[in-house]
Amino acid sequence: MTFPPAGPVDPAPVDPVVHQRERLARVALGELGEPGDPRLVSLVAELGAATVRDLLAAERDPGRGVLADVAARLETTNPARDLERAERLGIRFVIPGDDEWPAQVDQLMTTETLHDRGGPPLGLWVRGPMRLDELDASVAVVGSRSATTYGTTVAGEIGARVAREGYTVVSGAAFGIDQAAHRGALAAGGRTVAVLACGVDRAYPARHRALLDHLAATMAVVSELAPGRAPTRIRFLSRNRIIAALTRGTVVVEAAVRSGALNTAGWAARLHRPLMGVPGPVNTAQSEGVHQLVRKGAATLVTRGEEVLELVGASGHHLDEPRRGRTHARDSLSGRHQQVLEAVPLGSPAHSDSIARTAGIGLLDTRSILRRLERAGFVEHGTGGWRIRDADAPDSAAKTSEVPTMNT
Amino acid sequence: MTFPPAGPVDPAPVDPVVHQRERLARVALGELGEPGDPRLVSLVAELGAATVRDLLAAERDPGRGVLADVAARLETTNPARDLERAERLGIRFVIPGDDEWPAQVDQLMTTETLHDRGGPPLGLWVRGPMRLDELDASVAVVGSRSATTYGTTVAGEIGARVAREGYTVVSGAAFGIDQAAHRGALAAGGRTVAVLACGVDRAYPARHRALLDHLAATMAVVSELAPGRAPTRIRFLSRNRIIAALTRGTVVVEAAVRSGALNTAGWAARLHRPLMGVPGPVNTAQSEGVHQLVRKGAATLVTRGEEVLELVGASGHHLDEPRRGRTHARDSLSGRHQQVLEAVPLGSPAHSDSIARTAGIGLLDTRSILRRLERAGFVEHGTGGWRIRDADAPDSAAKTSEVPTMNT
């Protein structure tokens, strides 16, 4: 599994003052907006959080009114105070440009939305000693809260097996499969991380307080949401994209037909990361969703940890990966991104108005998409306009992405 | 599911005397050879059983010595007596050219061998009132003898469901999945047929005497082997090709990694008929073989009868089938058959020596393969030599095959 060509948002050396300003702006915007709100994500990706915050504060809503709700509440925030409070609780806020930023989530920038959620997180709140960039070798194990004993047994075994191989298990904090996956990894002496749909200082469900405290003490508990914020249904949907985007692949162990785990599966598929399903008895509702995924060809059937490791590339398979890696990166672009990318000439560069005409997309949108494609390493801008970035050039992001960065 | 372009061996009106001579010869050869022996099958397909029998009797072995073992024992047979005896037991011997001959098994003529078995049967011994041509709408349900309660429950449910839709269930007569599939179909008031690896007058396993007698009284018990002959391991392998070739698709419910059901699955795959696998708990050995089939993409995961019916074309899907039907027929040819077929010109006809040179296959072999391809409707012979049979001609076998012949 190769992560797509997407580096930190700002590849230039970071000015500490500018970077701190960006961090504070991201705290403020994150506290006002909902995670994965495509309007906010898109503006921040284009202008940077500090600029968006400043424009909103000056009542010059860069979203042309659509962010009026955020702007109105901006003065109620005090991000510096919030960061301090978090720090006292042992919680840090990691943003793009930080050393430990998990670059693999940046692929969300060019990935189609799902249920109106999408885009990379503004930042990730972390409680625990583990660095987020260590998650580049990780596997998501997700599934039903109301799992059967069969399901929790198998999830525990898979969690243990991949953890023994040095992979970090990533899951939510629900009863059932999530819990079993964490326990399996812990029992094997391996690493496991919980991603929450609420602040990392909260315990939801409350009965998992001890598990979450243990993970925070030894591993990491992660959330897009600021400390104190409560879980809601929509926040679970947003959270699921983080689980899929942090990991090299997602394993679904038991999921009824309307299970939230299938939402995580949808994100893994959108990201073109390996999606795996563990089958079970056909006469239990808990396996129905998994069987549907396998039946329609969205997920590969797996029966044990070895097969998971094989698919996420832990068995020397990364030797075969480069070609697929590059295809995947392009495939994972949303329709409009692909449309613009197709319109950029391969040879001599073109200006954005010409590209916009070819793509059949408005000039402003085309410019904004071009800037995102530039950050993701697909195109570059120089004298004469935009052109496709040469994947064979030695310093190309697309090229770099073809070398799997494995941590173990 | 469309059966491939293969009609009776002799499409001309059958002379009753000639046909009876052929029947007796097939009885004799069948009693001496092993079912699915490619040497015998190939000679009979080319020359007809009567000619092969006569040549063997005259000690002019058409197999140039390879059939010496058969020839030596030829005088010990008395096929007329054997047919009479069978008739007294209520057993008939159905051969190509008979009204009830199940033409779908002729596809075996051009299908690659498996474990050195292959080719259509010389004939099928039948005990029971059901006509074999009614099996054109049938589904094989096979699996482990040492099935779990889970497996037998699901096999019974699937047998019942497809039988209620008017499909005939086809299976062996073993304990476990075979038994459960028959019982499911019977309980639903549907039809089910057992194909044996021994004579249809025998009960193997002995404890299934009552089940087999019931099937013989109301449905049909079928075998390639003459009455009285005993089951052997190799005969089970030959039998499995008949189960796969009689049916529109094969469902595997529980099969350990070395289960015989996987051999039946192999035949279904070679015949390009839908191969389906029912998943189960990953921690039971009985489902391992099925999971492997699904995992490597050989079988489609199915969880209930409706999904089986969908795949064998019972839900209006036959409207989409013609195009695939023709492709499948060609795909199912063995490598050498395809090689010869590719060498036959599309336009003006060519003589077999020219085709042999193009195909890079010896003249004798090329001629024999051409005759088989002719019988299967792929090529035709006229003045000027061999040419591809026009699939769009009104009386073409290839064309005819595109109209699914459904019984219900």
Task: Tell me about this structure.
2 copies of one chain form a homodimer. With 408 residues, chain A is of the alpha/beta class. Among the domains of chain A are: 124-318, Rossmann fold (3-Layer(aba) Sandwich), CATH 3.40.50.450; 333-400, Arc Repressor Mutant, subunit A (Orthogonal Bundle). Helix content of chain A is 42%, strand content 11%. The first copy, chain A, is built from 17 helices and 11 strands. Chain A has helices spanning 16-32, 38-47, 49-57, 68-73, 79-88, 149-164, 177-187, 209-218, 233-246, 261-270, 288-295, 305-311, 321-331, 335-343, 352-359, 363-375, 397-400; strands spanning 91-94, 124-127, 138-143, 168-171, 192-196, 220-223, 250-253, 275-278, 300-301, 379-382, 385-388. In chain A, strands 1-2-6-5-4-3-7-8-9 form a 9-stranded mixed sheet, with helices on both faces. In chain A, strands 10-11 form a two-stranded antiparallel ribbon. In chain A, strand 8, helix 11 (288-295) and strand 9 (300-301) form a beta-alpha-beta unit. The radius of gyration of chain A is 21 Å and the shape is globular. The model of chain A is unreliable at 1-10, 315-327 and 392-408 (pLDDT under 50). The A-B interface holds A 150, 153-154, 278-283, 287-288, 291, 294-295, 300-304, 307 and B 150, 153-154, 278-283, 287-288, 291, 294-295, 300-304, 307.
